[in-house]
UniProtKB/TrEMBL annotation:
Protein name in the entry: ATP-grasp domain-containing protein
Domain ATP-grasp, first and last residues per copy: 365-616
Organism, scientific name: Conoideocrella luteorostrata
PANTHER family attached to this UniProt entry: ATP-GRASP ENZYME FSQD (PTHR43585:SF2), FUMIPYRROLE BIOSYNTHESIS PROTEIN C (PTHR43585)
Pfam families: ATPgrasp_N (PF18130), Dala_Dala_lig_C (PF07478)
Comp. bias intervals (Low complexity): 485-498
GO molecular function: ATP binding; D-alanine-D-alanine ligase activity; metal ion binding
Amino acid sequence: MFPEKAEMDLQQVVHSNFTGVSSFETDIDDKRVHLYCHWRLNEHMSPTDAPSAAVDIKSVPCSTLDLFFTPISFWLREKTLTSRSRASDRYTVNRHAADDAHSLSDNKSPIWPEASQTEAFRFVQDAIKKNVDGYGSCITAVKLLLPAVNGYVVRNDIVQRRFLTCQLAEKVIDFTTPGRHIQAFIYHREFVFQNALDTAIGAIHLKRLPGVDRGLVECAMNSLEADIKARLSFPWIVGKPLPRKRLALVDGKSYPDVSTAPLGIYRAAKALGVELVVLDYEGHWAQDPTAGQWRDEFIACDLTLGKDLPDRIVDSLSWSKGPIHSITTYSDKLLPATARAAEMMGLFTSPPEAMDICHDKRRTREFAPSACAQILSVKGVQDLQEQLASLISPLKYPLIVKPITGYSSEGVTKVLSEAELLDAVRRNEQTFPGIDNLIEPYISGPEVDANFILLDGELIWSEINDDFPSSAENFQKSSSKRSEISSSSTLPSQFSTPAPVPPSKSFAELSTIIPSILPESEIAQLRSSLTETLLRLGFKNGVFHLEARVQGSKMKYTMTNNGMELKPSQSETSKTADPSVFLIEINPRVPGHQETFAVEYTYGIDYFAMHMLAALSASAPALHTEDDIALKTIIRSLSHPLPEHCQYPTHIVFIPLDRGGTLVTVKPPPQQLMQYVSESLVFMQRGEVCKDPDKEGKWPFVAYFQVVAKLNGVEGRAQARTIGEMVRESFDYVME
């Protein structure tokens, strides 16, 4: 490691316009290394005092400084530095670069004395050490991001989050803090390094390339520069910071270092500078003083569901050490109570009545009825038998049975006969006592997840993704025959084709792929119909996760040579009815954390951050204060997606429980496949006892894997889908 106070001797030797060459020495462990640094300043826009919000959104509000560090020689350090003159102790590793030394002055004068403690300086040091350590001779290439405008960064990890899928980056880092005012970089011939290190707001370390061919490295840096222009061409430096806000979070979730689910919530709050006031049970991990890095305050509160829960929330918050600007939750079951508590405190919230409708699948169906008329709500088997006896016309199968309040497809069953219908209702009556069942037609069109962001009643972002058929819908019989891969360009040759997933009664999710490949006309129809439903419910601000099917779609799921995929329907030419949208459910919150993470990888949109920002934003125009305008400017900034050529398809692979017993062990996928997995988690612990899911009607997840393609477009989808199924097949768990 470098010493805390590293000594670096550097001098400016050549300067021509916006390029130059410098020489410096630094200590790496027991060696002293002599390096050349070729540098180049790249400007994307003229520096200005105006914040980037006032600049064309296609501009990049930063410049970059390329640094190419080439090791020239090194020598072992002794107690004195006289060894520098010993030829036997000094080794030249780049003869060609050393030949340029005639242009160097012998008067070595240290610079960067003040910058030596900056984060940017330490990042450069670490990058050099990583490449040079062990007598390495490769070139170290680093890009420093320099602000071209004055202002405030919308979140202090914006560069890292926008470069999650950059394949050229070894490491990406931000050097800002929430609320810190940044000054535009000003170019001075004599102080390029000093000013760059003082003002840098981020940096990217290029992946290591072999040898010392600077032409090859420069080519890679040019590609990285193009990636910067693509990923950062939006107003992420704004004129005013996010106002100081304290947000009450009802249900603090699990510890972020243990479960991936809450990590996105707390990471977003830290990056935005939002102060979280966590409400949860006594003894929750967030109550511990060591949890201060994640929250500003913890208040114990009994969150047991009940009519008085809103009162308990309000009473708990009355003990807060500071003002509460809004209340939110990421928990389905707590949404109605949280909204009522906010209303009681006079804070902005979505209508509690709308939350109640979304929480109840029967009321959701009544609010957004389909063209299908056969809808029943029953309390149990006896009620069902009485209603069946009074029907004018018999029910038409297949039908779906599900609890009117439920989560994660629990209790959802597809039935083909009256006997199966009675059995499904009987099982739910036992498993979910006191909860009514909704019976409705099964719609066979492609299912989608639709995620929307509303701001003041305007749809500012939406995306649709494909939710593949569950085991209960997969009528294809399991087969031991393996298919051939149609294109070697999408899949490494050492991988074999996955086997199909065997069918079962489970409606638990198996695969979600982002983005959808439904026809654009059907995507537009989904967007229009579902947005209209949200607005009719009275929603104005927030993140919304909806599930729907396209009835009469021009595409259907088909078993192909590469597995299950959406393909044009063969009967399309004989259709007369236009496609229609069948709403399944509305969730006035972010999608599950697996999908939320996947959306950020594909599009660069962080739903965790948008959810809390939307909760803090008032919707009435009369309440548009200066602070509210600043907040909504940041919301609009963070709703800019990555450009299409940077959108890599993502496949979320769910592994639902398929048998009961005691978990003995799990076998993870091989590393050849895991290199494509950006996020994963095994939910169950060794020794955990699991009930038979077919008997319980509950199919909890054993694990999930997020596969990110390294290609984009059609090839990327094929790659993500195929490798995802190989991950599913290679993962195994043993029960006894």
